[in-house]
From TrEMBL:
It comes from Draconibacterium sediminis. Keywords: Metal-binding, Signal. Residues 1-21 form the signal peptide. This is NGG1p interacting factor 3 protein, NIF3. One of its GO terms (cellular component) is cytoplasm. GO terms for molecular function: metal ion binding. Belongs to the GTP cyclohydrolase I type 2/NIF3 family.
Length: 285
């Protein structure tokens, strides 16, 4: 029979362990912490929601990524991460509407992989852009080393030392680890004023930026070829000192999710947090 004093001592010893077990982070608790740490109000209408899995699962590890493609999910499992925070959709469209894929073998196998490994997937898109500073732009500016060249608070406009377009494009290729970049403009054109338009904001917004007096060269993610491409080609043909460099959607924003992983480490404790870089999603010949 355990004496009263020994019972009390055992109780005191076990309290921290019981408390720790009860407070083990879950995807839901981490998302609640994210909501508390962004500087903006959390929007009622948003794509930043759980896309798969049980939000009350105990977290083993967190994987932060740009695209939650199969290779990234497999790597997360290898790293013992069961909570995936991704910037872009999981199931092939902005709202992750899967009705059209109900009988699609690729969708079904990806969904099955997520279920088999008890993964939980959350999209973090709108609010990482809405918070201040915009986490995606902050990460990209840090990656590119452009902080000292910024001329606006938003981190979209920059004044560079004069450089030739072809040389600038080569620098971007090296900095972002790209096989190729797409350049529209005179390769010998010299410039100092740069605009950064990450991701895929749409042709109208890209053209609006390129038309600004403060932008000679726009570094962009992706666009429809009948929109920004056509406009930039016409501008070049008409002798305008304008050019666009397309680096692809992933690489135009991915450093922002690396930034996100480091940001999360500032307030999410008790679980490992890893950034997983996406492999190239196409090859060139």
């Amino acid at each position: 029979m355990i004496k009263p004093m020994k019972k009390l001592l055992l109780f005191v010893i076990l309290i921290p362990f019981c408390t720790f077990a009860q407070n083990k982070p879950t995807p839901r608790s981490v998302v609640n912490q994210i909501k508390e740490n962004v500087t903006c109000d959390w929007a009622e209408k948003t794509v930043d929601v759980f896309k798969a899995g049980n939000p009350d699962t105990e977290i083993k590890g967190i994987a932060v990524c740009m695209f939650a493609d199969m290779r990234t999910l497999q790597k997360a499992v290898e790293m013992n991460c069961n909570f995936i925070i991704t910037h872009e959709p999981v199931f092939y469209n902005h709202l992750d509407d899967t009705e059209a894929y109900a009988n699609d073998p690729v969708y079904k196998e990806k969904r099955q992989f997520i279920e088999d490994h008890k993964l939980v997937v959350f999209r973090f898109h709108d609010h990482i852009h809405m918070t201040k500073p915009d986490g995606i732009y902050a990460g990209m500016i840090e990656k590119l080393g452009w902080k000292d060249y910024a001329v606006d608070d938003r981190g979209t406009l920059f004044k560079m030392p004069e450089i030739q377009l072809a040389d600038f494009a080569q620098e971007l290729k090296k900095q972002l680890g790209l096989q190729t970049v797409r350049v529209i403009g005179n390769p010998e054109m010299k410039f100092t004023k740069v605009g950064l338009a990450v991701g895929a904001p749409g042709g109208a917004r890209q053209i609006q930026m390129l038309n600004m007096p403060d932008v000679e060269v726009m570094v962009a993610g992706e666009a429809n070829e009948w929109e920004t491409y056509l406009y930039a080609n016409d501008a070049t043909t008409l002798g305008k000192n304008k050019a666009v460099i397309f680096v692809g959607h992933i690489k135009s924003e991915e450093a922002g999710m690396d930034y996100c992983a480091q940001w999360l480490k500032g307030f999410v404790k008790g679980v490992p947090i890893h950034f997983i870089e996406n492999e190239a999603n196409f090859v060139t010949f």
